[in-house]
User: Fold this.
Amino acid sequence: MSKFHDTVIALILLGSAGLGYAKEPIKNPDAFAGIGRSATDREVAAWDIDVRPDFLGLPSGSGSVAKGQEIWDAKCSSCHGVFGESNEVFSPLVGGTTANDVKTGRVARLLDASFPGRTTLMKVASLSTLWDYINRAMPWTTPKSLTADEVYAVTAFILNLGGVVPDDFVLSNQTMALAQARMPNRNGMTSAHALWPGNEFSGQAKPDIKAAACMKNCAVDPKISSFLPDFARNAHGNLAEQNRSVGAQRGAVTTQPEVLLGAKTELAPVPSVSNLTPAPAAVGLDVKAVMALASKYSCTACHGMKQKIVGPSFAEIAKKYPGKSDYLAEKVKSGGSGVWGSIPMPTQSLSAAEAQLIAKWLASGAGQ
Assistant:
């Protein structure tokens, strides 16, 4: 431990020395002539968006629970559920916390092995983590498109769903500390694992760096004692589409045969670039413009040209809706679920003209 401690101290001193050197003026600036330029204040500000646990870095702004619900219904619920219960793709955000957890700052169900899962509000200790992630990564299809006021509002709505703040609460850079004081797991952080930023520098804790494979009294391989018989598999509908309110537990896909543990399964191949190259489209359509839009708005992340990825392939959509460009344009913009399964397509931010161009290409056969 002492060697580790000495090494870390040495690295810190070297880092400090490096920082001091970086502040010194360049002795021979002509040696770097024509190589790059200094970042402008505006460019630095565009990247410097992180928010610390003490809320340093928060921009000015505010958002109410009511406003957050409006934004949530329009931009968030398609992936995260109307009440934060999520769907089969994303983990639930809300659930598993109680009024007593808000008082104590420790989520009791994290220690309950019988509870079905772990939600975001059960685990997160610092409200800045939630705010910062929404700000930089949401919505999934258009990250960083929310204003500061919208991020405050959506965060307030999530907290309200979890019973952390009341219906009339307005979250802002001035009230973040009030909400933080009611986070259900605010006291749940620990440094007992001796990982950063634990107590490893004090010598009071030691990281587990000597893990070894089990050699005795090892757990046996699981043995299936019961399973759903073929004649009963779809007796109550497809269980996979009947999402649970909390946790990652999902029902079996009862529209397909049972796959037993250890059985060999083959996954659909990941589409290659050649698979995404369209055939010539109908006369009058700019295929390059269509594919540029599909790439710009990440359509190809979920739809292959001929292969299903997350959603149906372009070829399948074209085959199902020939000539229905107006219908497809509306679906491209509004998204939805239920037609091709339970996995939702989020609302898209493209313009009506862009949606219509993609829709006409699909309605004309998608180049098939």
Remarks:
- The two ends are 66 Å apart (CA to CA).
